[in-house]
Amino acid sequence: MRHCIYPGTFDPITYGHLDVLSRASRLFERVTIAIAPNPGKGPLFSAEQRLDMIRPNVSDLPNVSLATFDGLLVDFAMKQKAIAIIRGLRALSDFEFEFNMALMNRHLEPAIETIFVMPNEAYSYTSSNLVKQVARYGGDVSNFVPPNVAEALKRAFAAGAPLH
């Protein structure tokens, strides 16, 4: 079974992420969304909260599962018996970082391929960080994230959550 890992912080998941996921789910028989805790990025939501936000938005994709991981992505991918890592590329500015990461992953584990997937151009400027900034100041993020995520952002910032 052809299995890929779609890793990320997903803090929070956006329509751009979901678009890349949808594309990956058509290319692979099985896709695992792998949430990295990534404390260095100072996530707004815990890994469990991110899982809870993603779950209802992937229920229509039967070949998609969710997991969290810590450590090297290629080690996680090998344990999951995946053959590829999916990475979304929104713009040329993403390419250098993603290219270097793909080369490092190939060096660490040559059996795992990295596949770059471009989201619909409508999402090319959307990032989790921008969405959080807009939401923090009461802006409408409904065009960028699913309704349950928009509500979670509203609750988090109403409770005084800091933006990292």
Written overview of the protein:
The protein has 164 residues and is α/β, with parallel strands linked by helices. It is built from six helices and five strands, in the order E-H-E-H-E-H-E-H-E-H-H. The chain has one domain (3-125): Rossmann fold. The mean pLDDT is 93.
CATH class: Alpha Beta
CATH H-tier superfamily: HUPs
Count of all domains: 1
What sort of overall outline do the alpha carbons produce when their principal axes are compared? globular
Report strand order across the widest sheet. 3-2-1-4-5
Q: How would a textbook summarize the main sheet?
A: 5 strands, parallel
- What CATH calls the topology is Rossmann fold
How far apart are the first and last residues' alpha carbons, in Å? Answer: 39 Å
Query: Uncertain segments of ≥5 residues (pLDDT<50)?
Result: none
**Radius of gyration from the CA trace?**
15 Å
Please provide the count of β strands.
5
Coarse structural class: alpha/beta
Q: How much of the residues is beta strand, in percent?
A: 15-25%
**Order of secondary-structure elements:** EHEHEHEHEHH
Residue-averaged pLDDT: 93
The number of helical segments is: 6
The residue fraction in helices comes out at 40-55%
- What is the architecture at the second tier of CATH? 3-Layer(aba) Sandwich
